[in-house]
Amino acid sequence: MGTEQDPAPLYPADRLGKAAAATRDAGFSALLLTPGSDLRYVTGYDAHQQERLTCLVVPAEQPPFLVVPRLELPAALASPAGDIGLDITAWEETDDPYALVARRLGPVTSVGLADRMWALMTLRLRAALPAARQGLASEALRGLRIRKTPAEVAALREAGEAIDRVHARLPGWLRPGRTELEVAADIADAIVAEGHARADFTIVASGPNAASPHHGASGRVLTAGDAVVVDIGGTMPSGYCSDCTRTYVIGAPPPDFAAYYQVLKDAQEAACAAVRPGISAEAVDAAAREPITEAGYGDHFIHRTGHGIGLECHEDPYIVAGNAEPLQQGMAFSIEPGIYPGAHGARIEDIVICGEHGCDRLNNGTRELVVVGA
Ligand code: ZN
Ligand code: ZN
Ligand code: ZN
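Above: inputs. Below: predicted complex with zinc ion.
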């Protein structure tokens, strides 16, 4: 951990050593990480997902190496992976990169594969390393990735501030006569304009669509009296993600809406207030669920309270009944209860950090009901 004058980097060079130690602790001979968040977490390399094999090999006992297609070598060398003393080997178009990995690795009994590795690579690695049991790399890396470093918290905070600026612009776009898709296009542009590398999702769920938690955006025309659930997020140049939901109403809300919106806001507040090191993930879920159930809307809160976030929008820890895992300082996750009675619905979502003394919210736009002009 660095001082204020010398902040620790987001992708520190000692990650490779920590990953090797975690590989040993998890009982794997090696981790095999194809492009995705595990590879980026360990090296900082935001590698391109494609059919040609790129694979970081992290053996428990030998030095790590990165195998890349020749045409990706310049990108790999220009990435943070080029600055950490990592052995990078390029393969030619007619080489068999799977045989190359197997040859360099030598005899192994078990390998941990990147959780989101393509089946194409999983099966070819099985054929190239027939004696190796295959497991998930998360068995080794979960313990590292689940607790964010101060640099990761700063990256998530920057993402939170960027998506808050997008929500601040929403009232200007939610006008009767416009479609959900038109609003979603404005949002996608703004997600990039406010500092993200890309928009990942733009849920604009109006009227009855608001009762469908993962509705995308449709041709439905916004109408006076609509509640509109807007759940949006993107990935920052740092690799870290944003995810924030606010619910808006156009003109006067539906008759019973204001009452349950207040219940929802209280539930979201109660769950945030429950966050502290040592409390279980499921107790935070219960803290959100109790006031909603007590008010008679329990059947309309149809999803878990939250999910972890970092280099993936959804990752460990999941804030859900059945997850007794105690929260630890540095965990990052959403608190996003919703109530979906059917004709309409509402959700409020913030990303929070489990701090030493409690909850640190990374989204700070108003949670009061925002009424936009009809
Ligand atoms: Zn979701
Ligand atoms: Zn979320
Ligand atoms: Zn969301």
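The chain has a mean pLDDT of 96.
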